[in-house]
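Retry 2 of 3 after timeout on previous attempt. Resubmitting structure tokens to design endpoint.
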């Protein structure tokens, strides 16, 4: 039985005898044999080489990396090395074995000498447990077997699933709070004074939305939108935004505790990545000299400049989307099709959001290559250092790809487009689009909803379908069996390894970034869930539904559709933690800005306490926001329209002298009124107050919840004490 345990399989095409590739392959396999590896060759349509490492390599590994105090006791009896460690050590040696031509496996794979190298999914008890308890749809709401995942895929993958499970569990509370906010908006605020006034405004005539062929319109047409807007834009949203800021902090603090518990139970507390790497290098080659740390300011400057250029390109793409929407709006309003011209604004926003989604997909691929290129410029020392550098770059690029257009909609849309008679125009021709008549937060809500729904449905389907289809295709490619009888030999019994190796070869290949992709996807989703959540309180609910499916989809992909990942050790989720903390801070700023700038919360409050009927006389039974709508619209005289604006001065058979538009400007010279500056000051004051309160609460929460549980601290303390006493 022991004879048939193979650590790794190398696959190569059948090359002609004496060809360059065949010679290179032989040289590499000879190097492995010199190191004491056992190699078994099986020929099918490809050549398969099973590789098994000699036992002394693992003894050396245990010797170098066990704690010095435990060395005396168990060095007499070598315990078995766990499978994950075996695979990791063998993988390292394979990757770092150098042939006489100074080529490593990586170079040989580029030159097509070898096609693939992978560890095997074997029929083990643990694999059956994982398939039954984890990698199937039936166990959607059961707890994940983290311990088993660790024993099969290594610590790094297990930590990813532990983190994802923890995040999903805490999303339940955020989703409930978001749902409660929307519900409160629907029940309490449908009868709100502001939306009632909009629905009753049958004779408030609004200025046209475009230059040609657009007629005037009546404010009460936007009645339904006003009600919907009020569901998201009310007093409850402010509380919800602060709740989400606290939630983000508590989530990370509790995760740190969870991680500390897990790391101690896996005996990883004192584990050091650098030491592990040096030990493996020395086992592979006792003459190895370590590669030293380097840092060059020149390189860093080049990388910084190139990264900034890339960010400018991404912001440029956001501008292109803005221009698209302005032009689309103009073309749709003039279109002959009634449906298009009637709902021009909504259609422009919808198609804009779909287009944004398409640019996200395309730019993701581009960002990937740029980030890799910048990483190579930096020449990081170790794999994990390279991974950290890459993570930060790709996250920043992805953040701008996903959010630049949202930032524009939230903070610039409708603030920079001028006023009737003096619009800001693109190329002197197209008017910049305005906010939706019922408030700017509606646009943000639509954009967020479209992107989150598309991202989660389409991306998830593709993520599962592509590996599944390619696996099915690889299965189909099997050519008919060659009968050895044709060569005049006796039919030999088929090797039991052959089927297993072929089956593993048919699975999709994995690379260093397989796990990275999963992290990136969830972290971008986390940004959507926290940063603009004030405009889209349903985001946590969507994220929750997505994650429950995501966990099991990833599990099925890893167990059934992909070759086995090379297990890697890790004691935390690495640099992702800092990324998540940065998002937490951005979320406070983002939500503060959304409430202060995008929503109508501040103008309504300023009106209530400074301009409403309540301030002038004592109306006890009156709603203080009465008259707000009329107060928030400015008057425009028709004779001041720009010369090329073609507007019919008649509306419903009445000659019109003036129309209204959303802004605080004087009727005679169109300068800002004093109320505009009052509101501006109130917005700034609210923003400063909100951010400081939320950040203080974050800091208090971070202090209040210790990073490492007492139990873990005490366990480490006792161990140190025991070891020192034993030494004494």
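Retry 2 succeeded. Sequence:
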């Amino acid at each position: 039985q022991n004879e048939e345990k193979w650590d790794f399989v190398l696959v190569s095409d059948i090359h002609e005898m004496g060809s360059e590739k065949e010679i290179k392959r032989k040289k590499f396999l000879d190097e492995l044999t010199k190191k004491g590896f056992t190699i078994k060759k099986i020929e099918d349509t490809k050549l398969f080489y099973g590789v098994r490492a000699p036992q002394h390599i693992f003894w050396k590994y245990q010797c170098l990396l066990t704690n010095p105090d435990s060395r005396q006791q168990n060095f007499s009896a070598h315990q078995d090395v766990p499978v994950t460690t075996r695979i990791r050590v063998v993988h390292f040696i394979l990757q770092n074995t150098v042939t006489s031509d100074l080529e490593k496996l990586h170079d040989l794979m580029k030159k097509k000498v070898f096609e693939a190298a992978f560890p095997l999914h074997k029929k083990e008890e643990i694999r059956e447990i994982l398939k039954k308890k984890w990698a199937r749809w039936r166990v959607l709401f059961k707890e994940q077997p983290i311990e088993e995942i660790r024993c099969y895929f290594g610590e790094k993958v297990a930590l990813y699933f532990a983190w994802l499970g923890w995040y999903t569990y805490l999303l339940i509370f955020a989703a409930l709070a978001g749902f409660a906010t929307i519900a409160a908006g629907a029940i309490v605020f449908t009868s709100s004074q502001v939306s009632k006034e909009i629905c009753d405004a049958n004779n408030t005539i609004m200025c046209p939305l475009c230059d040609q062929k657009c007629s005037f319109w009546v404010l009460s047409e936007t009645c339904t939108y006003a009600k919907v807007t009020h569901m998201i834009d009310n007093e409850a949203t402010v509380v919800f935004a602060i709740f989400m800021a606290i939630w983000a902090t508590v989530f990370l603090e509790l995760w740190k505790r969870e991680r500390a518990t897990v790391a101690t139970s896996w005996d990883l507390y004192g584990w050091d990545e650098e030491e592990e790497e040096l030990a493996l290098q020395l086992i592979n080659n006792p003459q190895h000299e370590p590669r030293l740390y380097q840092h060059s300011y020149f390189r860093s400057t080049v990388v910084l400049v190139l990264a900034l250029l890339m960010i400018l390109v991404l912001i440029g793409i956001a501008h292109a989307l803005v221009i698209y929407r302005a032009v689309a709006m103009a073309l749709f309003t003039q279109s002959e099709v009634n449906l298009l011209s009637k709902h021009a604004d909504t259609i422009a926003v919808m198609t804009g959001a779909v287009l944004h989604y398409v640019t996200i997909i395309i730019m993701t691929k581009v960002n990937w290559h740029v980030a890799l290129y910048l990483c190579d410029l930096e020449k990081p020392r170790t794999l994990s250092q390279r991974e950290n550098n890459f993570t930060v770059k790709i996250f920043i690029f992805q953040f701008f790809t996903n959010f630049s257009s949202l930032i524009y909609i939230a903070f610039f849309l409708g603030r920079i487009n001028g006023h009737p008679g003096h619009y800001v125009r693109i190329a002197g021709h197209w008017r910049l689009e305005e906010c939706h008549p019922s408030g700017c937060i509606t646009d943000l809500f639509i954009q967020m909803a479209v992107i989150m729904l598309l991202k989660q449905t389409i991306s998830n389907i593709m993520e599962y379908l592509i590996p599944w289809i390619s696996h099915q295709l690889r299965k189909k490619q099997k050519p008919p069996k060659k009968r050895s009888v044709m060569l005049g030999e006796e039919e030999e019994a088929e090797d039991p390894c052959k089927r297993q190796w072929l089956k593993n070869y048919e699975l999709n290949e994995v690379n260093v970034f397989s796990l990275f992709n999963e992290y990136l996807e969830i972290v971008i989703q986390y940004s959507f869930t926290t940063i603009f959540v004030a405009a889209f309180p349903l985001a946590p609910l969507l994220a929750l539904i997505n994650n429950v499916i995501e966990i099991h989809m990833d599990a099925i992909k890893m167990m059934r559709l992909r070759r086995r990942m090379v297990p890697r050790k890790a004691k935390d989720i690495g640099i992702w933690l800092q990324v998540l903390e940065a998002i937490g801070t951005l979320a406070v700023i983002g939500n503060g800005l959304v409430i202060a700038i995008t929503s109508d919360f501040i103008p309504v409050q300023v009106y209530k306490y400074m301009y409403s009927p309540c301030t002038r006389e004592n109306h006890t039974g009156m709603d203080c926001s009465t008259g707000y709508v009329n107060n928030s619209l400015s008057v425009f005289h028709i004779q001041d329209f720009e010369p090329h604006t073609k507007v019919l001065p008649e509306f419903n058979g009445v000659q019109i002298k003036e129309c209204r538009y959303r802004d605080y400007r004087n009727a005679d010279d169109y300068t800002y009124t004093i109320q505009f500056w009052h509101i501006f000051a109130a917005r700034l004051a609210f923003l400063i107050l909100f951010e400081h309160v939320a950040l203080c609460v974050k800091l208090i929460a971070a202090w209040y919840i210790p990073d490492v549980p007492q139990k873990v601290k005490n366990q480490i303390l006792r161990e140190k004490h025991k070891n020192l006493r034993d030494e004494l």
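Attempt log closed. The two ends are 45 Å apart (CA to CA).
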